[in-house]
Specification:
Layout: H1 8-18, E1 30-38, E2 43-48, H2 53-56, E3 62-67, E4 70-80, E5 83-88, E6 104-107, H3 109-112, H4 118-139, H5 144-161, H6 165-171, H7 186-208, H8 213-230
Antiparallel strand pairs: 1-2, 1-6, 2-5, 3-4, 3-6, 4-5
Helix pairs in contact: 1-4, 1-5, 1-7, 4-5, 4-7, 5-8
């Protein structure tokens, strides 16, 4: 079995951008919990419980807590480890006194969608978990059928992106040269880059099982899809 060597970082970028079609609205998702409140300075400290939020949310992005049916918005001013320091977006009387420690803090896509590359940062971070599961599934199994199933699931993701590649390039033409990473994407791209070598190890293991019929068939399908995406024959 021959599995084409490709730039997996390039595939990661394409997959991440391609899963989000134009006009799709990202849902509010819990990023963490209020850990500390400074009423006088209009600030809160957020303990981040959602791993993807560490990378999808950046300094300058918006989060909110709920006070009844009302959203109280904050701007992330600092990121340190698993904590976000945030300041109140609009100070209105004693509104911060309605916030309590332990309260859930949510991502605010309605405001963040206006920020450059937010949608790409968000989808890349969410998809990192998918790749980690793929790597884990390949790395921890010696069952050829399980490995073949993992390959096919990965191929299913690739198939979804092929029809929207042109849209991706049209939306982010400056990212055609993947080596030039904008500052807004540097953190999440760094996370994705770390997966590249691990993906290489997963594909090396696939080659070791290349004589198995199910794996050979799944790998052949994947190779065709990779060539379609990268434009290589």
């Amino acid at each position: 079995m021959k599995l084409r060597k490709v730039n997996f970082f390039f595939i990661l970028f394409l997959l991440s951008a391609g899963f989000r079609l134009p006009g799709h609205c990202l849902q509010n998702s819990a990023a963490g919990n209020v850990d500390f409140i400074n009423v006088h300075n209009g600030q809160i400290l957020v303990s981040v419980t959602d791993e993807s939020s560490l990378y999808s949310l950046a300094v300058g992005d918006f989060v909110h807590v709920l006070a009844g049916n009302r959203e109280i918005h904050f701007i992330i001013t600092e990121k340190t480890g698993h904590y976000f320091r945030c300041r109140l977006y609009k100070a209105e009387g004693n509104i911060l006194r309605t916030v309590t420690e332990g309260q859930k803090v949510y991502n605010s896509p309605a405001l963040n969608n206006k920020r450059k590359y937010y949608d790409l940062r968000n989808t890349m971070s969410e998809l990192a978990g998918i790749y980690e599961k793929f790597i884990y599934g390949i790395g921890t199994s010696e069952n050829p059928q399980v490995i073949a199933d993992e390959i096919n699931r990965f191929s299913d993701k690739l198939e979804k992106i092929i029809p929207v590649i042109e849209h991706i390039y049209g939306q982010y033409p400056e990212l055609k040269n993947i080596k030039s990473v904008p500052d807004e994407l540097r953190e999440v791209f760094s996370r994705m880059k770390k997966l590249e070598s691990l993906l290489g190890e997963a594909f090396y293991k696939i080659r070791l099982y290349g004589e198995n019929g199910d794996i050979k068939k799944a790998a052949a399908r994947l190779d065709i899809l990779i060539r379609r995406i990268t434009g290589k024959k």
